């Protein structure tokens, strides 16, 4: 353990997480989070499989959905397995490099998902407001470029955020009051004045979160105007149902992300940070495939076909 009293540089951090909880509470949390993690991995894995293999889901909406599920798998794998391990072992230390790597992956995947959600809203706008030109506007080439753009900005923005988080040395307390290395908490532990880094991350969050949100709001405002202009109530209901899944996912993800990265540090604390961290690290990735599958007959049908093929293959192997 690094002796912080003599000004030594921090080379490792301690993730406090649920350390203060009783052993029975930690065991209960381990079982709960393991079940949620397994469900999230299984559901997102199934979404990835059916969107990439089922020819009936060969459309831009499902192409984006498959990549959203892939991002969710990356997101939960970056944080949750480590938390599960720390719930059953006493050693909660992580190396400086491990913390840096985890933060970069969270930044990269989180930013990519923000941008991808905006592109998914644009896809729904084109499909509903310009149906005759949909295939031409949202061609496969365009969809690949949009997904690549989301990943590119995630990778580049992650480097910037990583630099701002670790630009100062660490020689204070090395206890992180969360179950993973979250940027605002880590920056507050650095030497000197962390306000510049926090302000830069806040400014970056405004751009990364609010810019895609503007595109989402504009897309759905035009969709709403188009829906209200239709005379058929059945057509309205079908269109609302198609968009409701995406809107639900957007609200879940953006609410938790905005609280974590756009709130003043004075409003933060372990009791407030952990619930929102859990919301966007495990609850949202778990809910995304459930929300889409429950409200989409095509996805449910593809899931049934995929599970049916798996059961048949197992039966034949026996």
UniProtKB/TrEMBL annotation:
Chain segments annotated as transmembrane: 27-50, 62-84, 104-122, 142-160, 200-223, 244-263, 275-294
Membrane-topology descriptor: Multi-pass membrane protein
CDD domains given in the database record: 7tmA_OR2-like
SUPFAM superfamilies cross-referenced by the UniProt entry: Family A G protein-coupled receptor-like
Keyword line: Cell membrane, G-protein coupled receptor, Membrane, Olfaction, Receptor, Sensory transduction, Transducer, Transmembrane, Transmembrane helix
Described function: Putative odorant or sperm cell receptor.
Family (UniProt): Belongs to the G-protein coupled receptor 1 family.
GO cellular component: plasma membrane
GO molecular function terms attached to this record: G protein-coupled receptor activity; olfactory receptor activity
Record domain G-protein coupled receptors family 1 profile: where: 43-292
Name of the protein in its database record: Olfactory receptor
């Amino acid at each position: 353990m690094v002796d912080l009293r003599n000004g030594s540089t921090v080379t490792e951090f301690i993730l406090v997480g649920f350390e203060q909880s009783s052993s029975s509470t930690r065991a209960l949390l381990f079982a709960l989070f393991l079940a949620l993690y397994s469900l999230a991995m299984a559901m997102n894995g199934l979404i990835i499989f059916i969107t990439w293999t089922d020819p009936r889901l060969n459309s831009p909406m499902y192409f984006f959905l498959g990549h959203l599920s892939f991002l969710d798998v990356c997101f939960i794998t970056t944080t949750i397995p480590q938390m599960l391990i720390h719930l059953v072992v006493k050693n909660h230390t992580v190396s400086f490099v491990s913390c840096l790597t985890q933060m970069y992956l969270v930044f990269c995947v989180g930013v990519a998902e923000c941008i991808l959600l905006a592109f998914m809203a644009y896809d729904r706008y084109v499909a509903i407001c310009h149906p005759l030109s949909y295939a031409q506007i949202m061609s496969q080439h365009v969809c690949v470029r949009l997904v690549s753009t989301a990943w590119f900005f995630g990778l580049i923005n992650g480097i910037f955020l990583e630099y701002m988080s670790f630009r100062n040395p660490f020689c204070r307390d090395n206890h992180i009051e969360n179950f993973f290395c979250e940027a605002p908490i880590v920056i507050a532990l650095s030497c000197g004045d962390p306000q510049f880094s926090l302000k830069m991350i806040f400014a970056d969050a405004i751009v990364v979160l609010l810019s895609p949100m503007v595109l989402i709001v504009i897309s759905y405002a035009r969709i709403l105007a188009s829906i209200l202009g239709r005379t058929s109530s059945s057509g309205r209901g079908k269109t609302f149902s198609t968009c409701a899944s995406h809107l639900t996912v957007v609200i879940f993800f953006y609410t938790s992300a905005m609280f974590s990265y756009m709130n003043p540090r004075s409003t933060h604390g372990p009791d407030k940070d952990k619930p929102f961290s859990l919301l966007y690290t495990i609850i949202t990735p778990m809910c995304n495939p459930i929300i889409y599958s429950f409200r989409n007959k095509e996805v449910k049908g593809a899931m049934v076909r995929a599970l049916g093929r798996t059961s048949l293959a197992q039966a034949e192997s026996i």
